[in-house]
Amino acid sequence: MRKALYFALAMCLGWSLSANAGVISDDDTFGLTAVGTADTAFVDQFNPALGTLQQVTLTLEANTQNGTITWDTTGDTSADVQLGVGAQVTATAPSTLVVVTLPMQTGHNSNVPATDNETPDPDFTGNDSFTVDTGAGSDDDSRSLISGFGPYLGTGQVQIDLTSAFKQSLISSGGSGDTESSAGQYGGTVTIEYVYTETQLVPEPAGLMLLGLAGLAARRRRRK
């Protein structure tokens, strides 16, 4: 009887795979650096012992500050002027995972007076000028990978290269004029997010029932 019970248990006890979804992330903040220069960030790799990697998402949150742009009216009528100064900030990670942002300091003056006929003209000072040189600009973007995970697997770190290029913008109507500008600084945070599945072996319900019956039978035999 005992041998038959054990045989039935061995034949019927089944196991299945249970996959649980998981998400982990890591980030690195890079301090203010002159626009036009490069920087580097580092984030943790995904440890394969946790499970099977399904997706990698890179997010860049960038900001700019301390840039300057000035408009000076050179015409005989007033001008409506919108100015922007900042940078195009790019984060490049392995497997051609690239994120691009455009943080800009901005300002608007709907009535910049006509030229004051200064010499030279423009001189970017006086009542006929408008300057944006305060505040900060911010922008963010994300991109994902669903393949090419090799460089992201391990227990070390992933290097993310940061580059920046000076950008300015001008929208004007009414009077004519000219601008001068200077670059500021950029900084921000890069975040890496790993989506993965954690695989576990779990017994089938029928297998659990058989385990319970086997235990019950063993107890009854001991009582006899």
Quick overview:
The chain has 2 helices and 12 strands, in the order αββββββββββββα. Helix content is 13%, strand content 59%. The strands form 3 sheets. Strands 2, 5, 6, 7 and 10 form a 5-stranded antiparallel sheet that branches. It has a 4-stranded antiparallel sheet with strand order 1-12-3-9. A 3-stranded antiparallel sheet has the order 8-4-11, with no helix packed on it.
**Mean pLDDT across residues:** 88
Compute the number of helices: 2
Number of beta strands: 12
SSE series: HEEEEEEEEEEEEH
What is the 3D form?
A: elongated
Q: What is the share of helical residues?
A: 10-25%
Q: Which residue ranges are poorly predicted, with pLDDT under 50 across at least 5 consecutive positions? A: 1-13
Q: What structural class do you assign from the helix and strand content? A: mainly beta
The separation of the N and C termini measures 14 Å
Estimate what percentage of residues fall within beta strands. Answer: over 45%
Describe the structure in your own words:
The structure is a single chain. The protein has about 220 residues and is mainly β. It has one domain. Strands 2, 5, 6, 7 and 10 form a five-stranded antiparallel β-sheet that branches. A four-stranded antiparallel β-sheet has the order 1-12-3-9. A three-stranded antiparallel β-sheet has the order 8-4-11, with no helix packed on it. Helix 1 runs antiparallel to helix 2. The radius of gyration is 32 Å and the shape is elongated. The two termini are about 15 Å apart. The N terminus is likely disordered.
